[in-house]
Design goal:
The protein is of the alpha/beta class and about 250 residues long. It is built from eleven helices and nine strands. The structure holds ligand 9D3.
């Protein structure tokens, strides 16, 4: 069972992951075990102070070393008691390398993950130097704190664990595994606001449907995500499908 501990000032935020949907069921099924640690419980004074003003001046506050160190050590000790040989400590921060599918896959192979979620301007640099194995950012935009980023990493890792997804929607079928965006999806009714479901999906011809879906994936990836498309080999059959995509409405118009 994957052990996941999080050092956070807002433990209740993580109910969103542990109590809903696929990740909630995985928690119920003991696929992973989750425990939050509040640095306030490790504060040295009666006011439970965990932040202080930055040396050198400037706006905002910085999370103090000692409560974070104690919370991180408690989390690691718990994981060792649960049999984790080498808990990996991850600080989610805007300064880390961007999260990728490859990183998600490697994290899903670990026995134990300890996340540190920052608030305010961030944590004292000596926490990172002394107690953090790696930093991860989830994208180039500003969040109010690290908790949502930790939940993004948790969700993406947990769905890769054995037994979490059924055979139907296995993680193998995910976008990014083949380097392409997903194709469009439709369900009833057959006509909505005068817009019909593409004929090929009503044809019952499985080979034609597979070819159409691949064509849509290729066309959309080329149009919307040049970065993904460029880092990918294109076969002769795929070139032909892209040609067909351009001739049809999606490629020409929108
Ligand atoms: C307003 C504060 N900013 C001054 C330039 C710096 C800053 C500090 C703390 C910006 C964001 C945060 C909180 N963000 C995270 O903890 C975080 C994050 C993010 O904001 N974007 C993308 N990935 C991540 S991972 C953690």
């Amino acid at each position: 069972m994957l052990q996941i501990d999080v050092v956070t000032l807002f433990p209740k935020m993580f109910d969103a992951v542990t109590q809903s949907g696929i990740t909630g069921r995985a928690c119920d099924n003991r696929v992973y075990q989750f425990l939050p640690w509040n640095p306030r419980d490790f504060a040295a004074n009666a006011h439970r102070t965990i932040d202080d003003r930055p040396y050198g001046g400037g706006p905002g506050m910085v999370m103090m070393v000692e409560p974070l160190k104690q919370a991180l050590l408690a989390a690691q000790q718990r994981q060792r008691s649960a049999g984790v040989r080498k808990p990996k400590v991850i600080y989610v921060s805007p300064q880390g390398p961007l999260l990728t599918h490859q990183k998600v896959m490697s994290l899903s192979q670990e026995e134990g993950l300890v996340f540190l979620a920052g608030r305010y301007e961030g944590v004292d640099e000596r926490v990172i130097e002394g107690y953090v194995d790696e930093e991860i950012s989830i994208g180039d935009y500003v969040l109010s704190g690290g908790e949502l980023a930790v939940m993004v990493v948790m969700d993406s890792v947990i769905r890769q664990l054995p037994g979490v997804l059924g055979d139907e929607q296995s993680a193998q079928q995910d976008s990014f595994v083949n380097g392409l965006l997903d194709c469009p999806h439709y369900t009833r009714p057959e006509v909505f606001d005068g817009r019909a479901v593409p004929n090929v999906l009503m044809s019952g011809n499985h080979a034609d449907i597979m070819r159409w879906r691949l064509m849509q994936s290729l066309g959309r990836t080329q149009q919307r995500r040049e970065d993904l498309f460029k880092s990918r080999e294109v076969s002769a059959e795929e070139r032909q499908l892209l040609e067909q995509y351009r001739m049809e409405a999606q490629g020409a118009g929108k």
